[in-house]
Amino acid sequence: MSKTSEFFQEKKKWSTYKDKLLKNYVPLYLSKILATNKDTLFIDGFAGKGIFDDGTIGSPIIVRDKIESAMQMSKYPTKIIPIFIEYNKKYAQELIESLNRKWCYVRNADYKTEALSIIKRNKHRNIFLYADPFGIKHLQYEIFSELAQNPNSVELLINFNSFGFIREGCRLLNVEIDDELNAYEETEISDNFQNNIENMNRIANGEYWQEIILLKKRGSITAKQAEELFVDAYMENLGHDFEYIFQFAVKTGDNTIPKYRMIFATNHIQGALYMSETMIKCNNEMTLDNHGQQESLFDYEFTRNSCADDILDILKKACDDEASIDCKDLCMLTYLMCGPKYLHIDIRKALIELEKRKLIVINRVNKYTPTGKLSKSMDFIKNEIRVALL
Predict the structure, then answer these.
(1) Burial of 90 from C-beta contacts in 10 A (0-12 / 13-18 / 19+)
(2) What is the mean pLDDT of residues 286-307?
(3) What is the pLDDT of residue 237?
(4) How far is it, in rounded angstroms, from Cα 345 to Cα 330?
(5) Cβ atoms 254, 290 nearer than 8 A
(6) Which whole number is the average pLDDT over 368-390?
(7) Backbone dihedral angles phi then psi of residue 277, each to the nearest 5 degrees
(8) DSSP code at position 57
(9) What torsion, rounded to 10 degrees, do the Cα atoms 96, 143, 257, 278 define?
């Protein structure tokens, strides 16, 4: 039995988390992107056949249903155009049948050339690129860099098997593959493409990964530490092209080694705020599944209780005596300085608490509702709300 047919027999437990991320985020994304008055391409770069052999649906069906629902409810004339790229001819045909929609476009093509060509031709449109490959060898950074040059709204979501990258790097640089490196070992679906050091450079956008592998070879770091160093460096690379970057590690059971990393990048703060919140919720749900509900809920409550103190510390660093800060930027600062652990509702409640303690002042730029009442809204994504220290 081929690796391809094995992969599509049934959906693995860890795959459910990336699907939940899509299910929860795509409706939020569509609600804001439809109001831009520009058509949007949603590109699924490694689409598969749409439905697994056990009947569970894949990302194309999830995306199709969310787009269909949003378009039916939309009051805007703009369109969402989904494009699904699948290299395997048989699976591409099965995907066409599974989607069963004329407005869903399936490209039986190589992701690297097709995605790059689509992105270059469509700089007048918004683009969302979802790259979820089986393995790592086709994740060339050039495509992401090209995407970032689009002056419209662009968003990128990558399923990155970062530990697999370290394992492959060790193989290519003749470094011993130890037990830790063999965690979650998989063989990529064969397409006659032979990986090499030059291609790894194209994936990583540089040679920095080689020094990390050599540190592992010398025994200076473990495989787990090598993966963490690589992810940090890769995120720094993305930071040269995108303003906002987030990731969370998908783990199962008691494993400390991630199965993969979900990495998101955009230049637009609203998308960043929506996705960061979606990732936090997905991560919390994963923790519940892996370690038991009571323990996880206790940990979350303990974390949430420190939100007001953290925000106060951030305001003291970010604001002078007379300056105020937009709550969107404040929310982003909490993620950068404290890590992505607070939900928007936690931040809103913390701000209200700090105002009651007369430590801050909240200024709603639109002071009144459309009906003329004094606004009490704390929805800082849809409204401009600023805070300042007292």
Answers:
(1) exposed
(2) 64
(3) 96
(4) 14
(5) yes
(6) 91
(7) -65, -40
(8) B
(9) -70
Query: What are residue 85's DSSP bridge partners?
Result: 107
Tokens 């003291």, located at residue:
316
Residues contacting 363, CB < 8 A, separation 6+:
324, 385, 386, 387, 388
Q: Which amino acid is at 158?
A: I
**C-alpha R_g of the chain:** 22
DSSP 347-366: HHHHHHHHHHTTSEEEEESS
**Through-space distance between the first and last CA atoms of the chain, rounded to whole angstroms:** 68
What is the percentage of the chain residues whose pLDDT exceeds 90?
67
Q: Is the pLDDT of residue 134 over 90?
A: no
- Per DSSP bridges, beta strands 80-85 and 40-44 are parallel
Q: Which two tokens stand for residue 121?
A: 């031709």
What span, in angstroms and rounded, lies between the C-alpha atoms of 133 and 7?
12
Amino acid at 110: D
pLDDT band of 1, cuts 50, 70, 90? very low
Token pair for 315: 């305001």
Over residues 323-341, the mean pLDDT reads 90
